[in-house]
Design goal:
By secondary structure, this protein is α/β, with parallel strands linked by helices. The chain has 2 domains: 8-156 and 360-372, Rossmann fold (3-Layer(aba) Sandwich); 171-318, Phosphoglycerate kinase, N-terminal domain (Rossmann fold). It is 37% helix and 16% strand. It is globular, with a radius of gyration of 22 Å. 47% of the residues are buried. Bound molecules: adenosine-5'-diphosphate and magnesium ion (MG). Adenosine-5'-diphosphate binds next to β13 and α13. Residues 178-181, 203-204, 221, 268-269, 292-294, 296-297, 299, 325-328, 348 line the site of adenosine-5'-diphosphate (ADP).
Length: 374
């Protein structure tokens, strides 16, 4: 048990049992010119293999279930699991994969009748889908209400790393936050301010904070309705580092470098070299670092330098390093540094919510499973 949640070892003898494994096979896909759908990154399917193999090695029959994309409660060819099923057949022969859970409105609606169909004939439930653990969907919270349950290896590692980060990080503990949507992340900013020694803010997120400090930010992305909250957070007197220089485009669309004040019409798209160097120093001197959200619009090579510098510092520092967030993980992979950090979380939203609230609906459900309560 970890945190009151059963692990695979707590399931007892699984031989001859039918096990439903909730996986996160929400893989990126592309459609080739001839119309076939192709998986562009197999990572999530391969990542589920340790759990699947642990079960099949011990004689269990494994049925996997996942969502893919955002179908609206009814079947749609472009969201069919067929390409994943073909891949799984080569990686784990004999393991079944159900059709996209979100083809049934009962999944997102957490419908008891859908849960009943899902677990019909199933003896054991294993949750290995951290990326969906913050959702109270049928396949996440339903099965553990009645079935003996456990978390799989991926979920176990996530809970281990992220709960530790929340409960007893080694200090100095630094959180580096960026990305675009500040309203999604202010809750975690507030929670992190309780435990971190320093908070570093870049990405589009920094402009709402800079605006709260009274700096003109030109036409940069910002959220006016969050300015008051940012002002309140800044007033808490905690160590918050904002960029001291910004690069972007001026009103004519030319590449430009600024300090903290952006003229009318200018758009900030990345932290400047001075800020990148300063943020890098902070990361190098930390003993624990959590990073979520790119420092700029890194998809455009002109505005990738800040994110690249932070990613390199994450790779070089002796600190224990954790990266959460789809785009931050993608940036890390783009720079070829994904193996240089200690943990890349498979769930962006889930990792932030676990840091913020200390628990997730999916974890709570496992903690209340029949075999966890005894
Ligand atoms: P994550 O997925 O890591 O949690 P987000 O989804 O919050 O990160 O944000 C990622 C997006 O933020 C990227 O697409 C990036 O281009 C964008 N972004 C970062 N900085 C800026 C900026 N200054 N202006 C516009 N977009 C930005
Ligand atoms: Mg994102």
């Amino acid at each position: 048990m970890i945190d009151g949640i059963p692990t695979l070892e707590d399931l007892g003898d699984v031989a001859g049992k039918k096990v439903l494994v909730r996986t996160d096979f929400n893989v990126p896909m592309e459609t080739t010119p001839d119309g076939t759908r192709r998986i562009t990154d197999e990572f999530r399917v391969r990542a589920a293999l340790p759990t699947i193999q642990w079960l099949t090695d011990r004689g269990a029959t494994v049925v996997c279930a996942s969502h893919l994309g955002r179908p609206k409660g009814k079947p749609e060819d472009k969201y069919s699991m067929a390409p994943v099923r073909d891949l799984l057949a080569t990686l784990a022969p004999g393991v079944e994969l159900l059709e996209n859970l979100r083809f049934d409105a009962g999944e997102e609606g957490n419908d008891p009748a859908f849960v009943a169909r899902l677990i019909d004939g199933v003896d054991i439930y294993v949750d290995d889908a951290f990326g969906a653990a913050h959702r109270s969907h049928a396949s996440i919270v339903g099965p553990p209400r009645t079935l003996p349950s456990a978390m799989g290896r991926l979920l176990e590692r996530e809970v281990d790393v992220l709960s530790n980060l929340r409960k007893n990080p080694r200090h100095p503990f630094v959180a580096v936050l960026g990305g675009s949507k500040i309203s999604d992340k202010l809750g975690v900013v507030e929670a992190l301010l309780e435990t971190v020694d320093a908070l570093v803010i870049g990405g589009a997120m920094c402009f709402t904070f800079l605006a709260a400090q009274g700096h003109p930010i030109g036409d940069s992305l910002f959220e006016p309705d969050q300015v008051d909250t940012c002002r309140r957070l800044l007033a808490l007197g905690k160590e918050i580092h904002l960029p001291e220089d910004i690069v972007g485009l001026d009103a004519e669309g030319n590449y430009a470098t600024y300090g903290r004040r952006l003229p009318a019409g200018a758009k900030g798209f990345d932290i400047g070299p001075g800020s990148a160097a300063a943020f890098s120093d902070i990361i190098m001197e930390a003993r624990t670092v959590f990073w979520n959200g790119p420092m700029g619009m890194f998809e455009d090579e002109r505005f990738a330098k800040g994110t690249r510098t932070v990613a390199q510092a994450m790779a070089d520092t002796k600190a224990f390093t954790v990266v959460g967030g789809g785009d931050s993980a993608a940036a890390l992979a783009q720079f070829g540094l994904e193996d240089e950090v200690d943990h890349v979380s498979t769930g962006g939203g889930a990792s932030l919510e676990l840091l913020e609230l200390g628990d997730l609906p999916g974890l709570k459900a496992l903690r209340e499973a029949p075999n966890a309560r005894v």
